[in-house]
């Protein structure tokens, strides 16, 4: 006879989530979801609570990204769920397997005007892979299992369930959760062989590897394929660090000449979006390798686009035995361009100026960040510099908002990263604009003993808007913030620590104090408002 579990709705939901490796809950307290808290409390299941629901979802997403397993956010009904929509949408664009369990007004009074009565599912369905209302208590565990299976099936993404008040508070039973069974998509072997042949026989091939290579646990296979065919590798998103910066095939600064001169560009595990010039690479043929057929580009015509499990596809490419071309001269030319780019960056990162340039901040950060530090970008202009000047040494150590570009990820990502790695450096890079979205949740970090370092590039403007408006119209509006605002005092008032830096020589010592503090610590660096990240290319 099959084993049966019994309990109230919260206990059934948590039992099913645990079977998928879920080890913690992020939430903002709400009465509609009390049984989920009760189930967690009675089993020592960690609960981390926040000051805004979007932070809970971003924290769950950070866990999902870093650990490549589901992250769980629990949100109360109505505004609790709608406050989490930006987080869910970011998870959707980032292929992050986040599960949001939402409260819901009681079904038996539906239409009578209960507190926070709102039908979430039609709003949530377009930004999730699975969205449903659970109709009865006995179905909760099965629905959680179905939602998480869909979230983990390529192309991965978030799932949502709301549970009416009387359903989650009632008791029921369900079959005990077994081992998760996540389907694996097999690519067409002929398409894989065609992709391998194109890369192997090209005169000037390039690989660009993105977040799905990390999310699909295909880092080792990517390295094997690049090394077997001797193809230079560029990365974006969580693909960064897939090859360490010292690897002879790892490139970052030579992207423009590489893409302008390549005859084959192989993009793996990332969309052909604005970050990659929408897939238009001069005269190059495009190979687009994706983890599911739904991710194939429709606005360009790739030469071939294998779709399936990235580990298997890349392993097959590494085993290619057909003809191949010597790429040594191509790699040597790109290495010269790479070295020249690094020399230019080194000069920028040591600049002594009265008004601090963002590049100098990153020059100092490079000196203090450990190889396994998790670096989080939350911002526009200031974080664009981070993408240029910071080179992750290891995969799975870089978090940014992704192609949806949502500000306010910082504190949630920091919470999820600290929960994942209790002993690593966690560093959040924020523009002063982005700081306004989530800085209150520094209190959540303080209260729950989760130390992180926050570095704010404080130029007193919305940099991505002010400079373009000035160029287009000769004026700007709605683009100014308070100059010199003391964001460090905000964190101090919330129980953390911090300081303001006005001189370039003070940055390094301030960072050392921040990482040694053992509490949430904000380094508020006043930067040059006239310094704007160059927008001549959309490849950043």
Please list the strands of the largest sheet in the order they lie side by side.
3-2-4-5-7-6
Output the number of helix runs: 22
Structural class, please?
alpha/beta
- Amino-to-carboxy terminus distance: 57 Å
Q: What portion of the residues fall into strands of 2 or more residues?
A: 15-25%
Give your account of this protein's structure.
The chain is an alpha/beta fold and 540 residues long. It has 22 helices and 18 strands. Helix 9 packs across helix 13 (310-318).
Task: Give a short synopsis of this structure.
Keywords: Thiamine pyrophosphate, Transferase. The chain has helices at residues 9-18, 34-42, 53-67, 79-82, 85-94, 121-124, 140-152, 165-169, 189-201, 211-215, 219-229, 255-261, 310-318, 328-349, 358-368, 381-389, 410-420, 432-438, 442-447, 463-473, 487-493, 507-516, and strands at residues 4-8, 25-27, 47-49, 71-75, 98-104, 130-133, 159-164, 171-175, 205-209, 233-235, 264-268, 285-289, 374-378, 398-399, 426-431, 453-458, 497-501, 521-526.
Which descriptors would you attach to this protein?
16% strand, disordered C terminus, 22 helices, six-stranded parallel β-sheet, THDP-binding, 18 strands, alpha/beta, 540 residues
């Amino acid at each position: 006879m099959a084993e049966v579990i019994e309990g109230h709705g919260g206990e059934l939901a948590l039992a099913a989530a645990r079977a998928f490796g879920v080890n913690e809950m992020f939430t903002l307290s709400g009465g509609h979801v009390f049984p989920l808290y009760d189930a967690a409390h009675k089993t020592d299941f960690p609960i981390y609570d926040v000051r805004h629901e979007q932070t809970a979802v971003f924290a769950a997403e950070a866990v999902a990204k870093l650990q490549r397993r589901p992250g769980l956010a629990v949100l109360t009904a109505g505004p609790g769920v709608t406050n989490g929509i930006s987080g869910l949408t970011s998870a959707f664009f980032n292929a992050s397997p986040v599960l949001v369990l939402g409260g819901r007004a009681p079904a038996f009074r539906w239409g009578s005007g209960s507190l926070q009565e709102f039908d979430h599912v039609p709003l949530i369905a377009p930004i999730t892979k699975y969205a449903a209302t659970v109709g009865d208590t006995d179905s909760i565990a099965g629905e959680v299992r179905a939602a998480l299976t869909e979230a983990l099936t390529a192309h991965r993404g978030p799932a949502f369930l709301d549970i009416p008040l009387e359903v989650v508070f009632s008791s029921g039973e369900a079959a005990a959760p077994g081992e998760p069974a996540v389907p694996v998509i097999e690519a067409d072997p002929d398409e894989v062989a065609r992709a391998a042949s194109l890369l192997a026989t090209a005169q000037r091939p390039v690989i660009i590897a993105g977040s799905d290579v990390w999310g699909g646990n295909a880092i080792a296979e990517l390295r094997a394929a690049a090394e077997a065919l001797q193809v230079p590798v560029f990365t974006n998103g969580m693909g960064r660090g897939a090859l360490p910066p010292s690897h002879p095939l790892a490139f970052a600064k030579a992207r423009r000449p590489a893409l302008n001169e390549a005859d084959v560009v192989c993009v793996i595990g990332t969309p052909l979006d604005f970050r990659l010039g929408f897939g238009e690479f001069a005269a190059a043929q495009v190979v687009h390798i994706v983890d599911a057929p739904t991710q194939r580009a429709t606005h360009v015509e790739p030469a071939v686009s294998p779709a399936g499990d990235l580990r298997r596809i890349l392993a097959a490419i590494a085993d290619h035995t057909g003809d191949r071309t010597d790429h040594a001269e191509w790699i040597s030319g790109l290495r010269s361009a790479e070295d020249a780019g690094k020399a230019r960056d080194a000069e920028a990162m040591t600049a002594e100026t009265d008004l601090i340039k963002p590049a100098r901040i990153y020059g100092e950060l490079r000196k203090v960040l450990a190889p396994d530090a998790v670096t989080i970008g939350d911002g526009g202009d200031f974080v664009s510099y981070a993408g240029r000047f910071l080179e992750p040494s290891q995969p799975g150590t870089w978090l940014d908002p992704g192609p949806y570009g949502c500000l306010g990820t910082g504190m949630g990502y920091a919470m999820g990263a600290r929960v994942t790695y209790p002993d690593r450096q966690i560093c959040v890079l924020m523009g002063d604009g982005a700081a306004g979205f989530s800085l209150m949740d520094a209190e959540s970090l303080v209260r729950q003993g989760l130390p992180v370092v926050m570095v704010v590039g404080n130029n007193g403007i919305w940099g991505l808007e002010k400079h373009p408006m000035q160029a287009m119209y000769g004026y700007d509006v709605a683009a100014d913030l308070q100059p010199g605002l003391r964001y460090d005092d905000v964190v101090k008032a919330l129980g953390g620590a911090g300081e303001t830096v006005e001189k370039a020589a003070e940055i390094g010592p301030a960072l050392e104090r921040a990482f040694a503090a053992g509490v949430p610590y904000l380094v508020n660096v006043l930067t040059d408002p006239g310094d704007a990240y160059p927008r001549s290319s959309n490849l950043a």
